[in-house]
Write a structure and sequence with these properties.
By secondary structure, the chain is α/β, with parallel strands linked by helices. It has helices spanning 20-29, 43-51, 75-84, 98-108, 119-136, 148-159, 211-217, 221-243, 261-273, and strands spanning 8-14, 33-35, 59-63, 88-95, 139-142, 169-176, 187-190, 248-255, 278-283. It is elongated.
Length: 289
């Protein structure tokens, strides 16, 4: 029974040292299910298993290269089986200049898969072995002059141009300064200058998630003005974090005890950013005494 074309597979291959390991990390940040160094003989069975999941696993990136040893010789046979089963796939081939590859191997001190030869001889032989596969590639990226950040941006532009913003995962943490700063915070906003519900007797036992506390906090024009300035700053800066290759951003919002003001502001910031980015809001100290 033929598998239905419910998945799309990107097969990453190419020269050793050209950046395939970094490329697979880039695809993972874009939401792909990733497998590194999959033996080609397992590729058809793996694709069939993914297709049986009925859309729950529809974007897959795989690395297959000379590290597979003698199994790599079965790659063309595996690709023919994918074609006969109507599995949607494409080949991404990474390459780099000889001098660049030699420098990278010397810097990392990693073994070349053809380690029985000198490094230059191994690179020459690998090019010959991969020449036919390169000719079948749907896309070829020369990483000679690309930094890791530039490679990530290139892959994002090629494969998920409309999803680049969604590749950024933002965690917003409300906290109380008296319990200490969150150690993993990238940005910290201090809202202790806002009117404090703690000094309103009937609000003291509530939290920033309660409607009465929210009404109190958003009663003041200073709260709205501050939120607008924070939002403007984040709208300006987050795209630059993405361009630099950052895929996770932790924003901390703190008040004195982490129970009222920081909670309300953190949730509103999360709501504003949630339309463009993947956002998770946490309240570290909300229930502390």
């Amino acid at each position: 029974m033929e598998a239905q074309p419910t998945i799309h597979i990107v097969l990453i291959t190419g020269m050793s040292g050209a950046g395939k390991s970094h490329a697979i990390n880039c695809f993972e940040d874009l939401g792909y299910f990733c497998v590194d160094n999959l033996p080609p003989t397992l590729l058809p069975k793996f694709a069939e298993l993914c297709a049986q999941l009925e859309g729950r696993l529809n974007k897959v990136a795989l690395v297959s290269d000379l590290r597979g040893g003698e199994f790599f010789n079965n790659l063309f046979e595996a690709l023919q089986e994918l074609d006969s089963n109507r599995i949607d796939y494409e080949i991404l081939f990474l390459e780099a200049d000889d001098e660049v590859l030699i420098r990278r191997f010397k810097e990392t001190r990693r073994r070349h898969p053809l380690a029985d030869l000198s490094l230059r001889e191994a690179i020459d032989k690998e090019r010959q072995m991969l020449a036919e596969l390169r000719g079948k590639a749907d896309r070829v990226i020369d990483t000679s002059s690309l930094s890791p950040r530039e490679l990530k941006e290139t892959i994002a532009n090629l494969y998920e141009p409309e999803q680049r913003e969604k590749s950024m995962f933002i965690t917003i943490i409300s906290f109380g300064f008296k319990y200490g700063l969150p150690l993993d915070a990238d940005l910290v906003f201090d809202v202790r200058f806002l009117p404090n519900p703690h000094y309103v007797q009937h609000l003291r036992s509530l939290t920033g998630q309660d409607p009465q506390v929210k009404d109190y906090i958003w009663r003041w024009m200073v709260t709205h003005k501050y939120l607008q300035k924070v939002h403007d700053l984040l709208e300006f800066s987050i795209p630059y974090y993405i361009r630099e290759g950052k895929s996770n951003l932790v924003i901390a919002v703190g008040c004195t005890g982490g129970k009222h003001r920081s909670v309300a502001l953190a949730e509103e910031i999360g709501r504003l950013l949630g339309d463009r980015y993947r956002v998770n809001c946490k309240h570290r100290d909300m229930h502390k005494a």
